[in-house]
Amino acid sequence: MSWADRLREAAYTAPDGTRQTFSYEDVSRATSKKTSVYTFADADGAFVQDTGRGGRRYPLRCIFHGADCDTEAAAFEALLWQRGPGVLDHPMYGRRDVVPTGEIRRRDDLVSAANQAVIEVEFFETLDLTFPRSQDHPGDDVAAAIGDYNAASAGQFAALAVVDNAADRADLQGTYTRLLDGASDGLSALASAQDAVQSQFDDIYDSINQGIDTLIRDPLSLAAQTSLMLQAPARAAQSIRDRLSAYSDLADSIINGRGADTSNQLASRDLYASGAVTGSVLSTLNHQFERRSDAFDAAESVLAQFDAVQAWREEQYARTGDTDTGEAYQRLQQAVSLCAGFLVEISFDLSQERSIVTTRPRTVIDLCAELYGEVDSRLDFFIETNGLSGDDILEVPAGRRIVYYP
Fold it and tell me: Taking Cα atoms as reference points, which of 124, 117, 3 lies closest to residue 62?
């Protein structure tokens, strides 16, 4: 039996159960490899940590031919626009739970290949079955999970911290203060985007900084205040990309830095690294997603950050010999899982990218009105998503590819 004998019928089954077959050309798939690269000042080369694989994407050129190719292609397009996960029967790679993502292109070869219509689409193997979904208010469940984590994290910090004598307190205070200043440097730009958020962030920072001599003797209160400080900038009116990047950078600065040599150092670094993950989770809750791809990207970012922090935690607990009770980890894992499920769930109600190519010069107002039906609330979004600037805002030239999200 050859490879040709092992090929399957190609088809897509939409969320409503409608199944449609199609012809195809050469096929491929892409899989992201999740790795973390660590470099060290006193050593050549790099250490690469393998953290598994990401989602798989299946780009396909779906071909419809014959006298009814136009209506078959239109029916297939309608299936792709349905919201929710479907099933791809891939001719080479088998059956997969998928969601169509990105731009969906249709081409009707009226002259070069009569009686043929082609739809190009990329299917993304879905996370939908992997993570829990709330039946009522998923965003509220994620926020509640973060609250449970904060309590468990404070208890873990208090259990690890050693403050019996002056030397131990100095060790804890030294490590903690450096992390406090690093968090301030890394998150202040986010917090400054909104006066109320900056005020809250600064008030908590000042309270900790000025009272550190007293708080160091009360680890439970210190950890609780730290979590609130780290999570405050997640509510700022900054782009989701900027917020996730800032929290990821904060976590990376900790896990790529010097390892923990004492229980106090581990307690402090774990508090800040894991706290950065909660900041990313809350950032997704405090953002109004408009595009399906943005929600998927945010889910992948949060999951990757969580995986990196947890791999680092395991190494550090082994390094110091401390015991991880697992309660804070379980609470954080629950929050991250609910977050990923929440993002996948809302993505089904978000717009998927479509595109046109202008056939003549157009004004942005005319194009926006034509594609969105109105201008006032969509014009800035239209300009931003197409990267229009300068002369393009005055007149979009012919031949320009324009994306929109109906």
Answer: 117
Q: What is the CATH number of the domain that holds 59?
A: 2.40.30.200
**Which DSSP letter does residue 362 get?**
B
- Any domain includes 298: yes
Range of the domain at 65: 3-125
**129 pLDDT more than 50:** no
For the chain, give the longest Cα–Cα distance.
Answer: 86
What is the structure's pLDDT at 40? 47
What's the mean pLDDT in 155-166? Answer: 90
Sign for the CA dihedral angle at 283, 148, 180, 157 comes to: negative
Read off the pLDDT of residues 206-238 as tens digits, 9 standing for 90 and up: 999 899 988 889 999 999 999 999 999 998 888
Round to whole Å and give the CA distance between 219 and 170: 13
3-state helix, strand, coil in the chain (%, to 5): 50, 20, 30
Question: How far is CA 249 from each of CA 151, 230, 387, rounded to the nearest angstrom?
Answer: 24, 13, 26
- Check if the beta carbon of residue 403 is closer than 8 Å to that of residue 355: yes
Pair 301, 386 in one domain: no
Which residue type, as a one-letter code, is found at position 141?
A: D
Domain count, the chain: 3
* Cβ pair 403, 385 in contact under 8 A: yes
Residue 134 included in any domain: no
Query: How far is it, in rounded angstroms, from Cα 251 to Cα 279?
Result: 10
Instruction: Please indicate, yes or no, whether residues 174 and 261 belong to a single structural domain of this protein.
Output: yes
Residues 363, 333 share a domain? no
